[in-house]
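Hello Y.,

Per our agreement to keep a running log of every chain we model this quarter, I'm adding this entry. I've kept the format consistent with earlier entries: sequence first, then predicted structure.
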Amino acid sequence: MDEILSQQEIDELIRQATVAMQEEEVQPEVVTYDFKRPHRFSKERVRALHRIHEQFARELSGLISAKIRTRVELNVASIEQLTFGEFIRSVPNPSVIIVCSMQPLDGSMLMQLSPDISFLLYDRLCGGPGTSLGRTRELTDIELAVLTSQLFEDMTVSFENAWSEIVDMQVKLESIESNPQFLQLMTERETVVLISLNLSVGNTRDLINICLSYSALEPVLKQLTSLRLFDSLRRRAAPEDIEMLKSRVQQTPITLTVELGSNTVTVADLLSLQVGDVVTLNRRRYENLEVKIGDTTKFLASPRKLGDKLGILITALWPTERKEANE
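Predicted structure for the entry above:
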């Protein structure tokens, strides 16, 4: 016959089970907080910085590739928080350190490259094969002047574009330093974020380091965590973004040409042409002229005179344009 438990025995079993469950609870992990290196950028803000600088890397790789006519790859390697003093001590001497202001934000943005990769870029800009220095030395004033005018100034524009969803900043190149110990821009204890980009130029691998201080970014920290930023970076365009893009497209200069006509002549006729000769074109006097946007014919027009200048009067769409408009 099965043994029947008393109420006292049942209560004791329940108590023992409760004690066992409490003992099995996982104690929260204790994390040591380093007051000398406070993490002032949350994980969400670090993710936002990663996305912004991935966009910067994409635009910058296209810029450098077009300038030096070589395949260039750039991507974010790491983002870490440290003090300005630690950053300074990690930078080799000599280096190429670009110091930029970021109005309306206070503080400076630092972009650091090695002399070796900088000389490779300089060599390519000058039409060379892209050789490296072979030995560590500072770049000359002439080498830095070429890099600044041909590349570094445009890099600041790419940085502005990458940050345009957060703040409309004007990045200005203020100076180029070679010795990191000469950078007295903030206290050594100032918290900074270091964004390292992997740079590949042909078979050469190197890093571009970007240093931004917490105090400089503090006014826009809320924007870094806004949903609007993430929606934009996921290509869910907001109406104001579309309007901004439309405005930029409308301000893009394009070439408009009017073709008066053409004809075929022999080489003998061409060689005998002299001042005062009249060449007959394959177009009648009152026939409409073709108006081209770029290399594509878009309109028909008749010639006009506006003051002391020639002009045209648009009379019709080009036949293919009319067909597309009707469809």
